[in-house]
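tokens incoming
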């Protein structure tokens, strides 16, 4: 950065005074070449769309945000769009480096859908990812990564006194993104990017369907778990944001999109320590897969 203020706060991993800033810092770089930040006119922000970042990663919770932020290096920028705050850093790779905008938007399909459209408005990026954790439904173990090739909205249906009749909707990521995700799985290079301690069993990655709703499913005998098995039989994981995210991408034609999830708990055996122990691990694995994907992905547009 040349020190010119373009309406985005600029951050560095180390400034001229030797002050270090971690991935989650929001401390403005106070090196002598950087002026105090100011808010540029909105026309200036619109003129720069598409240049601040060529990829956007959306997360729901703090552990997911921290896992992705750990892969980014400075100089860091901060950009706001309709109240959503993005931290922009560089994702280095063996094949390319990208400027990546990272945001945390909270749980739920509605907010996830809004976040994709807002990211497109702010940056016109090549690709938008939702990266985070999920519960394993079947055929996966803790720490595995699931990339959704389809996401089912399992809560849509008709319920009466006798039964629930599913009318599940399906959303899909872009074909180009799924193809590259399959290639990342085949290459088996992504575990080398994991920044946490290695597990006794190396994590696996799958490109499989995922179910999405607004409930936390914490027991395999729960009514929702039974409905998942009945109506979303090939879903291997369940989460809370992917359907809204991909539905928004579908409505915003031309946006390459993908949902990447690390398995942080299973429908059986979940206890109070599960989130504390496994959420950071699962989030780190999902972030590592996302970093490998972004190193390789090229949009067809």
């Amino acid at each position: 950065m040349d020190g010119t203020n373009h309406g985005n706060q600029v951050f560095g991993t180390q400034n001229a005074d030797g002050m270090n800033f971690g991935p989650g810092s929001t401390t403005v770089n106070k090196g002598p070449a950087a002026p105090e930040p100011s808010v540029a006119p909105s026309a200036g922000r619109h003129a720069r769309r598409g240049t601040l970042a060529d990829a956007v990663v959306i997360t729901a919770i703090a552990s997911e945000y921290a896992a992705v932020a750990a892969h980014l290096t400075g100089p860091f920028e901060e950009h706001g769009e309709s109240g959503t705050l993005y931290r922009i850093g560089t994702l280095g790779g063996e094949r390319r480096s990208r400027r990546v905008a990272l945001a945390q938007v909270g749980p739920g399909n509605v907010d996830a859908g809004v976040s994709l459209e807002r990211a497109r408005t702010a940056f016109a990026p090549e690709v938008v990812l939702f990266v985070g954790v999920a519960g394993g439904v079947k055929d996966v173990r803790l720490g595995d990564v699931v990339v959704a090739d389809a996401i089912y909205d399992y809560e849509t249906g008709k319920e009466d006194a006798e039964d629930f009749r599913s009318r599940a909707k399906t959303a899909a990521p872009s074909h180009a993104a799924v193809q590259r995700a399959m290639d990342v799985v085949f290459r088996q290079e992504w575990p080398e990017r994991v920044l946490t301690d290695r597990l006794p069993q190396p994590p696996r990655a799958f490109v499989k369907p995922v179910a999405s709703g607004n409930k936390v499913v914490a027991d395999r005998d729960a009514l929702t778990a039974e409905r998942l098995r009945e109506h979303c039989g090939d879903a291997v994981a369940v989460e809370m944001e992917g359907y809204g995210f991909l539905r928004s991408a579908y409505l915003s034609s031309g946006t390459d999109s993908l949902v990447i999830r690390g398995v942080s708990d299973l429908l059986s055996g979940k206890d109070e320590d599960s989130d504390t122990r496994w959420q950071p691990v699962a989030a780190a694995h999902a972030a590592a897969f996302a970093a490998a994907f972004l190193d390789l992905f090229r949009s067809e547009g």
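note: The longest helix spans residues 274-296.
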